Amino acid sequence: MRLLFAGLAVFVIATCVLQLEQDRAGLTIAPLDGTGSTPATLYLRDGGGAAPVVVVAHGFAGSRQLMESYALTLAQAGYVVASFDFKGHGRNPVPMSGDVNSIDGTTRLLMEETARVARAALDHPRADGRLAYLGHSMASDVVIRQALESPPADAVVAVSMFSQAVSPTEPRNLLAIAGAWETRLAQEALRTLRLTDPDAALGQTTGDPAAGTGRRAVVAPHVEHVGVLYSATAQREARDWLDAAFMRATDSPVPQRGGWIAFLLVATVALGWPLARSLPQSTPPKAVMGRRAFWAAVILPALATPLVLAPFELSFLPVLVADYLAVHLGVYGLLTLGFCWRSGLVRGQFPARAFWIAGAVALFGIALFGGVLDRYVASFVPHAGRVPVIAGLALGAVPFMLGDALLCEGGRAALWRVLAARIAFLASLALAVALDFEGLFFLVIIMPVIVLFFLLFGTMGGWVGRRTRLPAAAGIGLGLVLAWSLGVSFPMFQAV
Q: Where are the bilayer-spanning segments (predicted)?
């Protein structure tokens, strides 16, 4: 049964990888030179002629990989496509800086970086001198503002847009795309469309794209802020809009990557089950935490940690709110471990084999699952500057996940206990944000990463804990995976 399941998982993984790689067929994908320290990738259709340049920019906490569906769609349509990592994101070794609350601060620096990539792409022999921008979320404002400056852009595609720089006439040929489940941004897209025609409706084009006066706002069905990046509707609208602006006609295929990526991630997680079943078993622990002790171990750390840390300003890591999160995780984990120790859950959890099992869990999560993420979803391989960040986060993440694994008995606890433990931690982070909204607001953006971690890696940790009867092994391994995941997700920031 175990081998059959493993074979099925490997078959699904291979099928998904082959399909996703097929989307790159006929393209030359290589580093773009001339961008300074900014990592950038150039996408060119083999055998194509001169064509307009499209610069693709990701949103906050994103990377080039997250925007690849658009890059592939436009490159297959014959455009010269350049995608890059903003400062502080992905593989970019230079941290973000400047005043995030000022247009002339961080936004100006990101605009300059976008312009540098555009100039490098325009210098390519295949570029015909015309330029368009496509930006998501944070980058929508950046590319709209940069489109008004040098080098000027002939068209802009703003995905999940918010920008105060849009006027009835600028930028030229603006397409606003929003996901149907991001209601406020869909309303913002409609608002910008109605600057030119108060009676315009979603899905309607105003002005003349050939003359540079085109405006259009569309909603991609059944998707939200991230799903809109994989929407076939959104990709097709972007391609057709640029074709109209540059008076081109293409009917190239639109990659259907979202579903294949989802199947690939699920199959990779599923592969963890037969691998976990191959681990050695141990004698089940005898200690069980009583209900009153359990609720104390859940509630007290969740309340005490943000209250204890509230008076302190923590700034020792060059990443937004990562230093606070590292300490929050560590304090929370140590308090939880104290309750687990009193209940006898720690006894017998650290034989020698627990540490190589923890290493195997970390290797699976970082190398195998992380490799899939890095190739098809988002940057997961850190540059040298992120190594100290990952190490700092590990000092907090390992005690936290160790305490969580013991509290949840390595996946053997009742489901309500597991849910209570995870919800209490998220509530603790929410309380921390409420106590210092301005300083810790970016924790709100990181919370979905933690929820996804609990769903995926928590499931795998449960398989390991139930098989080995060593929750500590799973906890230590997953703590390292959590530290790595957060360390490559947080944008690096240098205060000035």
A: 260-280, 292-312, 324-342, 354-373, 385-407, 414-434, 440-458, 470-493
Per-residue pLDDT tens over the stretch 272-306:
999 999 998 877 666 678 999 999 999 999 999 99
**Alpha carbon 161 to chain centroid distance?**
18
Q: What is the largest CA-CA distance in the chain?
A: 77
Beta bridge partners of 175: 157, 216
Residue 326, C-beta contacts closer than 8 angstroms, at least 6 positions apart: 317, 392, 393, 395, 396, 397
Looking at the structure of the chain, the number of domains it has is 2
CA proximity to 377, closest of 263, 241, 285: 263
Question: Among the three residues 193, 219, 254, which one is the final residue of a domain in this structure?
Answer: 254
pLDDT in tens, 36-56: 999 999 999 999 899 999 999
- Which bin fits 61, alpha (ψ -120 to 50), beta or left (φ > 0)? left
Distance from C-alpha of 256 to C-alpha of 93, rounded to nearest angstrom: 32
Say how far apart CA 455 and CA 49 lie, in whole Å.
46
Amino acid symbol at 460: M
Question: Looking at the domain assignment, is residue 409 inside a domain?
Answer: yes
**CATH number, domain containing residue 77:** 3.40.50.1820
Q: Tell me the CA distances in angstroms from 125 to 33, 50, 88, 122, one per residue in order.
A: 13, 8, 30, 8
Specify the amino acid at residue 337. Answer: L
Q: Which domain holds residue 373?
A: 279-489
Residue 412's alpha-carbon distances to 18, 285, 290, 293, 302, in angstroms, are 37, 11, 14, 17, 22
Distance CA 39, CA 32 (A): 8
Q: Which residues of 211-236 are buried (b: 16+ CB within 10 A; e: fewer)?
A: eeebbbbbbbeebebbbbbbbbbbbe
pLDDT tens track for 56-87: 999 999 999 999 999 999 999 999 999 999 99
Residue 99 pairs in a beta bridge with none
Any residues with CB less than 8 A from the CB of 311 and at least 6 apart, and which? none
Residue 395, number of CB atoms within 10 A of its CB:
15
Alpha-carbon distance values, 262 to 67, 228, 257 (Å): 16, 14, 9
Q: How many CB atoms lie within 10 A of CB 433?
A: 18
Close Cβ partners of 414 (under 8 Å, ≥ 6 residues apart): none
